[in-house]
Amino acid sequence: MSDRSLRGMRLGSQSMESEAGVEPAPRQRVEYRTEDGEQVFVTFASEAEIPSVWVSKSGKEAVIVNGEKPENPNEKHQRTHWDMLMERRTTEELEDILEQRLKFYREQHAL
User: Fold this and answer.
1) What does the angle CA 69 – CA 71 – CA 77 come to, to the nearest 5 degrees?
2) d(CA 34, CA 18)
3) Contact 90/98 with Cβ under 8 angstroms?
């Protein structure tokens, strides 16, 4: 009996569930504008953090309308190797490691 009910059905490509009683998540539509006046509309979830800059389909940067404008949207703090090292180690740990390595190299050259 169940074989007959599935005959002619493309399994996996169509859902058997209906959309009755389904309510979509609340959304908000945000407007961005490029320097040359191109309008860009983007839909976000209502609880989403809204970015102040959006890249349009044409590849131009668009700034949010009626919102906080960034001082310099292209400016990003670039972390150096030293910054990343200092996130993992303290100055005392680095001094200890340096002393250990110097001691190791001095012993190797003394042979």
Assistant:
1) 125
2) 41
3) no
Q: Fill in the DSSP letter of residue 24.
A: P
The structure tokens listed for 39 are 């309008």
How many whole angstroms separate alpha carbon 66 and alpha carbon 16?
44
User: In terms of pLDDT, which residue wins out, 45 or 68?
Assistant: 45
109 has pLDDT over 90: no
Cα separation, 82 vs 71, in Å, equals 27
pLDDT interval class at 40 (50, 70, 90): very high
**Tokens describing residue 30:** 């945000």
CA 48 from chain centre, in angstroms, equals 13
Single pTM value for the model = 0.47
Three-state SS at 67: coil
